[in-house]
Protein backbone atom coordinates (compact mmCIF):
# COMPACT_ATOMS: atom_id res chain seq x y z
CA UNK A 1 0.00 0.00 0.00
CA UNK A 2 1.34 3.41 -0.97
CA UNK A 3 1.14 6.47 1.24
CA UNK A 4 0.80 9.89 -0.36
CA UNK A 5 2.06 12.78 1.74
CA UNK A 6 1.10 16.36 0.90
CA UNK A 7 2.89 19.44 2.25
CA UNK A 8 5.47 17.15 3.80
CA UNK A 9 9.21 17.45 3.41
CA UNK A 10 10.95 14.08 3.57
CA UNK A 11 13.83 13.65 5.97
CA UNK A 12 16.49 11.99 3.87
CA UNK A 13 18.35 10.80 6.96
CA UNK A 14 15.42 8.53 7.82
CA UNK A 15 15.97 6.45 4.71
CA UNK A 16 18.78 3.97 4.06
CA UNK A 17 21.87 5.72 2.76
CA UNK A 18 23.38 3.73 -0.07
CA UNK A 19 27.11 4.09 -0.56
CA UNK A 20 28.61 4.92 -3.93
CA UNK A 21 26.76 7.14 -6.38
CA UNK A 22 24.28 5.48 -8.70
CA UNK A 23 24.27 6.26 -12.41
CA UNK A 24 20.93 7.63 -13.59
CA UNK A 25 20.05 7.54 -17.28
CA UNK A 26 17.10 9.16 -19.01
CA UNK A 27 16.07 8.66 -22.62
CA UNK A 28 14.84 9.92 -24.95
CA UNK A 29 15.74 13.56 -24.41
CA UNK A 30 12.36 14.77 -25.71
CA UNK A 31 8.91 13.16 -25.49
CA UNK A 32 6.26 14.84 -27.70
CA UNK A 33 2.72 14.59 -26.33
CA UNK A 34 -0.61 16.23 -27.11
CA UNK A 35 -2.63 18.00 -24.41
CA UNK A 36 -4.84 15.60 -22.48
CA UNK A 37 -2.68 12.56 -23.13
CA UNK A 38 -0.59 10.58 -20.65
CA UNK A 39 3.18 10.24 -20.69
CA UNK A 40 5.70 8.26 -18.62
CA UNK A 41 9.32 9.27 -18.14
CA UNK A 42 11.86 6.56 -17.34
CA UNK A 43 14.95 6.89 -15.17
CA UNK A 44 17.19 3.81 -15.41
CA UNK A 45 19.37 3.09 -12.39
CA UNK A 46 22.70 1.27 -12.38
CA UNK A 47 24.97 0.73 -9.40
CA UNK A 48 22.20 0.72 -6.81
CA UNK A 49 19.17 -1.33 -5.80
CA UNK A 50 16.08 0.61 -6.91
CA UNK A 51 14.23 -0.59 -3.79
CA UNK A 52 16.68 1.33 -1.57
CA UNK A 53 16.61 4.59 -3.48
CA UNK A 54 14.90 7.81 -2.45
CA UNK A 55 14.19 9.24 -5.90
CA UNK A 56 13.30 12.86 -6.53
CA UNK A 57 11.95 14.44 -9.71
CA UNK A 58 12.77 18.07 -10.45
CA UNK A 59 11.74 20.17 -13.44
CA UNK A 60 13.37 23.13 -15.09
CA UNK A 61 11.20 25.47 -17.13
CA UNK A 62 12.91 28.28 -19.10
CA UNK A 63 12.84 31.55 -17.22
CA UNK A 64 11.92 29.91 -13.92
CA UNK A 65 13.80 28.46 -10.96
CA UNK A 66 14.02 24.66 -10.69
CA UNK A 67 10.93 23.16 -9.07
CA UNK A 68 10.57 19.99 -7.06
CA UNK A 69 7.80 17.89 -8.59
CA UNK A 70 7.48 14.70 -6.58
CA UNK A 71 9.59 12.22 -4.60
CA UNK A 72 9.35 8.46 -4.08
CA UNK A 73 10.78 6.74 -1.03
CA UNK A 74 12.13 3.21 -0.56
CA UNK A 75 9.00 2.56 1.54
CA UNK A 76 6.88 3.61 -1.49
CA UNK A 77 5.70 6.80 0.17
CA UNK A 78 4.99 9.62 -2.27
CA UNK A 79 5.95 13.17 -1.33
CA UNK A 80 4.26 15.87 -3.40
CA UNK A 81 4.37 19.65 -2.82
CA UNK A 82 0.95 21.26 -2.47
CA UNK A 83 1.44 23.19 -5.73
CA UNK A 84 1.86 19.97 -7.73
CA UNK A 85 -1.37 18.23 -8.81
CA UNK A 86 -1.86 14.51 -8.31
CA UNK A 87 -1.62 14.03 -12.08
CA UNK A 88 2.11 13.54 -11.39
CA UNK A 89 2.70 10.04 -10.03
CA UNK A 90 6.09 8.41 -9.35
CA UNK A 91 6.68 4.67 -9.34
CA UNK A 92 9.42 2.09 -9.69
CA UNK A 93 9.90 -1.17 -11.58
CA UNK A 94 12.41 -3.48 -9.95
CA UNK A 95 12.57 -5.81 -12.97
CA UNK A 96 13.60 -2.88 -15.18
CA UNK A 97 15.81 -1.31 -12.48
CA UNK A 98 14.04 1.97 -13.15
CA UNK A 99 11.98 4.71 -11.59
CA UNK A 100 9.16 6.37 -13.52
CA UNK A 101 7.26 9.63 -13.50
CA UNK A 102 3.81 9.36 -15.07
CA UNK A 103 1.91 12.51 -15.98
CA UNK A 104 -1.75 12.12 -16.91
CA UNK A 105 -4.00 14.64 -18.65
CA UNK A 106 -0.95 16.60 -19.81
CA UNK A 107 -1.39 20.38 -19.78
CA UNK A 108 0.44 23.09 -21.69
CA UNK A 109 2.08 24.25 -18.45
CA UNK A 110 3.69 20.81 -18.07
CA UNK A 111 6.10 21.58 -20.92
CA UNK A 112 9.44 21.45 -19.11
CA UNK A 113 12.61 19.39 -18.69
CA UNK A 114 12.25 16.77 -15.97
CA UNK A 115 15.28 15.39 -14.13
CA UNK A 116 15.49 12.35 -11.88
CA UNK A 117 17.76 13.14 -8.96
CA UNK A 118 19.35 11.46 -5.93
CA UNK A 119 21.07 13.11 -3.00
CA UNK A 120 23.43 11.21 -0.72
CA UNK A 121 24.06 12.12 2.91
CA UNK A 122 27.71 12.75 2.02
CA UNK A 123 26.68 15.51 -0.38
CA UNK A 124 27.19 13.38 -3.47
CA UNK A 125 24.49 13.85 -6.10
CA UNK A 126 23.37 11.76 -9.05
CA UNK A 127 21.35 13.28 -11.89
CA UNK A 128 19.68 11.98 -14.99
CA UNK A 129 20.30 13.82 -18.25
CA UNK A 130 16.77 15.23 -18.28
CA UNK A 131 13.76 14.56 -20.49
CA UNK A 132 11.59 17.30 -21.91
CA UNK A 133 7.85 16.81 -22.04
CA UNK A 134 7.14 18.66 -25.28
CA UNK A 135 3.48 19.60 -25.34
CA UNK A 136 2.42 19.84 -28.97
CA UNK A 137 0.62 22.99 -30.01
CA UNK A 138 -0.02 24.73 -33.32
CA UNK A 139 0.34 28.43 -34.08
CA UNK A 140 3.37 28.96 -31.86
CA UNK A 141 4.91 32.47 -31.97
CA UNK A 142 8.35 32.34 -33.63
CA UNK A 143 11.45 34.19 -32.44
CA UNK A 144 12.07 37.73 -33.64
CA UNK A 145 15.77 38.43 -34.17
CA UNK A 146 17.45 41.83 -33.88
CA UNK A 147 21.16 42.23 -34.60
CA UNK A 148 23.20 45.05 -33.10
CA UNK A 149 26.63 45.84 -34.58
CA UNK A 150 29.57 46.80 -32.40
CA UNK A 151 29.73 50.44 -31.29
CA UNK A 152 31.88 52.70 -33.45
CA UNK A 153 34.36 53.26 -30.64
CA UNK A 154 34.97 49.51 -30.42
CA UNK A 155 35.63 49.21 -34.15
CA UNK A 156 38.14 52.04 -34.10
CA UNK A 157 40.04 50.57 -31.15
CA UNK A 158 42.56 47.74 -31.15
CA UNK A 159 40.69 45.52 -28.70
CA UNK A 160 37.69 43.34 -29.46
CA UNK A 161 34.28 44.07 -30.94
CA UNK A 162 30.98 42.47 -29.98
CA UNK A 163 27.96 41.73 -32.15
CA UNK A 164 24.75 41.18 -30.18
CA UNK A 165 21.63 39.27 -31.15
CA UNK A 166 18.37 39.84 -29.27
CA UNK A 167 15.91 36.95 -29.65
CA UNK A 168 12.39 37.68 -28.42
CA UNK A 169 8.69 36.94 -28.75
CA UNK A 170 8.89 33.14 -28.85
CA UNK A 171 6.98 30.37 -27.05
CA UNK A 172 7.71 27.89 -25.60
CA UNK A 173 11.02 28.94 -24.11
CA UNK A 174 13.24 26.33 -25.74
CA UNK A 175 15.47 27.84 -28.41
CA UNK A 176 18.90 27.14 -29.87
CA UNK A 177 20.91 30.22 -30.93
CA UNK A 178 24.12 29.97 -32.94
CA UNK A 179 26.36 32.14 -35.11
CA UNK A 180 28.02 31.99 -38.50
CA UNK A 181 30.56 34.21 -40.23
CA UNK A 182 30.54 34.21 -44.03
CA UNK A 183 28.35 31.10 -43.84
CA UNK A 184 30.73 29.10 -41.62
CA UNK A 185 29.61 28.10 -38.08
CA UNK A 186 31.42 29.91 -35.25
CA UNK A 187 31.62 28.90 -31.58
CA UNK A 188 34.69 30.82 -30.40
CA UNK A 189 33.86 34.06 -28.61
CA UNK A 190 30.15 33.23 -28.39
CA UNK A 191 28.29 33.89 -25.14
CA UNK A 192 24.57 33.19 -24.69
CA UNK A 193 22.33 34.42 -21.88
CA UNK A 194 19.69 32.29 -20.15
CA UNK A 195 16.14 32.37 -21.48
CA UNK A 196 13.72 34.43 -19.40
CA UNK A 197 10.08 35.48 -19.49
CA UNK A 198 9.60 38.76 -21.32
CA UNK A 199 8.19 41.08 -18.64
CA UNK A 200 7.43 43.69 -21.30
CA UNK A 201 4.96 41.25 -22.90
CA UNK A 202 3.71 39.40 -19.84
CA UNK A 203 0.21 38.97 -21.28
CA UNK A 204 1.61 37.02 -24.25
CA UNK A 205 3.69 34.73 -22.01
CA UNK A 206 6.59 34.86 -24.47
CA UNK A 207 10.31 34.52 -23.87
CA UNK A 208 13.45 36.46 -24.65
CA UNK A 209 17.17 35.74 -24.70
CA UNK A 210 20.32 37.21 -26.16
CA UNK A 211 23.58 35.99 -27.59
CA UNK A 212 26.78 37.81 -28.45
CA UNK A 213 29.86 37.08 -30.49
CA UNK A 214 33.20 38.79 -29.86
CA UNK A 215 36.18 38.96 -32.20
CA UNK A 216 39.33 41.07 -32.59
CA UNK A 217 38.51 44.55 -33.88
CA UNK A 218 40.86 44.30 -36.90
CA UNK A 219 38.90 41.25 -38.13
CA UNK A 220 35.53 43.01 -38.17
CA UNK A 221 35.95 44.52 -41.63
CA UNK A 222 37.61 41.45 -43.14
CA UNK A 223 34.37 39.42 -43.24
CA UNK A 224 31.33 40.01 -45.42
CA UNK A 225 28.44 38.56 -43.42
CA UNK A 226 27.65 37.96 -39.74
CA UNK A 227 24.56 35.85 -39.02
CA UNK A 228 22.59 34.98 -35.90
CA UNK A 229 20.62 31.74 -36.27
CA UNK A 230 17.69 30.66 -34.10
CA UNK A 231 16.16 27.18 -34.18
CA UNK A 232 12.71 26.95 -32.62
CA UNK A 233 9.85 24.48 -32.87
CA UNK A 234 7.54 27.19 -34.28
CA UNK A 235 9.43 27.07 -37.59
CA UNK A 236 10.52 24.09 -39.73
CA UNK A 237 13.57 26.07 -40.86
CA UNK A 238 16.05 28.20 -38.90
CA UNK A 239 15.30 31.89 -38.50
CA UNK A 240 18.29 33.99 -39.54
CA UNK A 241 19.25 37.64 -39.14
CA UNK A 242 22.41 38.99 -40.78
CA UNK A 243 24.45 42.16 -40.95
CA UNK A 244 27.43 43.30 -42.98
CA UNK A 245 30.24 45.54 -41.71
CA UNK A 246 29.71 47.80 -44.71
CA UNK A 247 26.08 48.35 -43.74
CA UNK A 248 26.91 49.48 -40.21
Automatic annotation (TrEMBL):
Residues 10-116, 143-244 form the Ig-like domain. It holds the Pfam family C1-set. The gene is Hvm63_0. Keywords: Disulfide bond, Immunoglobulin domain. The keyword DNA-binding does not apply. The lineage of its organism: Eukaryota, Metazoa, Chordata, Craniata, Vertebrata. This is HVM63 protein. InterPro entries: Ig-like_dom, Ig-like_dom_sf, Ig-like_fold, Ig/MHC_CS, Ig_C1-set, Ig_sub, Ig_V-set, Immune_Resp_Modulators. It comes from the Eukaryota.
